[in-house]
Amino acid sequence: MSKPALRVRIYGARGSYSSTSNHGTSFGVNTTCFRVDLGEQILIVDAGSGIINCGGELLKELQRERADRAEWPVYLLFTHMHIDHLAGLPFFAPLYSPKSDVHFIGPQILDYKLEEAVRTFVHPPFFPVGIEDLPFRANFHEMAENKAIYLYKDRFELRPLIEKIEPDWLSRITSMRNYTHPKGGSFFYRFETAAGAILVIATDTEGFAGGDQRLIKFAKGADILLHDAQYDPGEYGMMQGFGHSTYEMACEVAEKAEVKKLVLVHHDPRYDDEKLRAIEKKARERFAQTLLAVEGMELTL
Ligand SMILES: [Zn+2]
Ligand SMILES: [Zn+2]
Questions:
Q1: Which helix (H) or strand (E) holds 103?
Q2: What is the number of structural domains in the chain?
Q3: Residue 15 CA, ligand 2 centroid: distance in Å
Q4: Mean pLDDT on 115-143
Q5: How many Å lie between the centroid of ligand 2 and the Cα of residue 293?
Q6: Residues with CB under 5 A from ligand 2 (ion)
Q7: Backbone angles phi, psi at 188, to 5 degrees
Q8: What is the pTM of this model?
Q9: Is 1 among the domain residues?
Q10: CATH number at residue 165
Q11: Does residue 217 lie within any of the structural domains?
Q12: What region, left, alpha or beta, does residue 277 occupy, with left being phi > 0 and alpha being psi -120 to 50 degrees?
């Protein structure tokens, strides 16, 4: 059976920190991590605690399905470096295999390049060993709005957008810097296949009155939009400026960008099932094709 052109799997639907409550966890407890498969290529967006389950499953899959290959390339994209998007990284199982060829791809945030942030975090005194002590191969690439990632059957290239590229790529990833997340912003990603399937991930963002016009343009016509909706509108007033949205903000963007399906992510860890189901119901009244992300959810295009 051939693989779908694009598949996204949710491994972490929460934001800020992993839910600590014993009740209401059917949406999952883990923080941000999404696996995106583009044909044969495996990409993971963010390394919140969700990447621990993701990595465990992935390593078994690679051992089972790609045992004959010398290397296992995995592309790890980061939206930004906040702890809820990074805390699971040292426990990502493929880092402990010498066959793993991990490409870390992300923006510079404030004065920190992605490589500095990763090497600082996965290192004593924060972690017992540094990434240089682990057996996998690490490669670092700086993403920027003026670059695109082009994926081919067995390789990838990060090239300036302005360059003329032969149209033989299988999929392409572009980015947008979001300025509404303190203090250094976050990156949104747009994944598109040569056949025209589009997934946009826009987490850790706070909406604007009338909708974020840059994001509306960036997400235009997407088949699936994953959008931050951490706060209930009733609570938003207290949380204004924290860099997160309400479902109303997400729905407005989805509607104006004419996306086919909206998936709300980065659920507040304090919200139980009852609260989240109420949010989903209200969101569907606003934008019918809305789902709340649940750990284990899988969407294909
Ligand atoms: Zn976050
Ligand atoms: Zn954040």
A1: strand 100-106
A2: 1
A3: 8
A4: 97
A5: 17
A6: 82, 204
A7: -100, 150
A8: 0.97
A9: no
A10: 3.60.15.10
A11: yes
A12: alpha
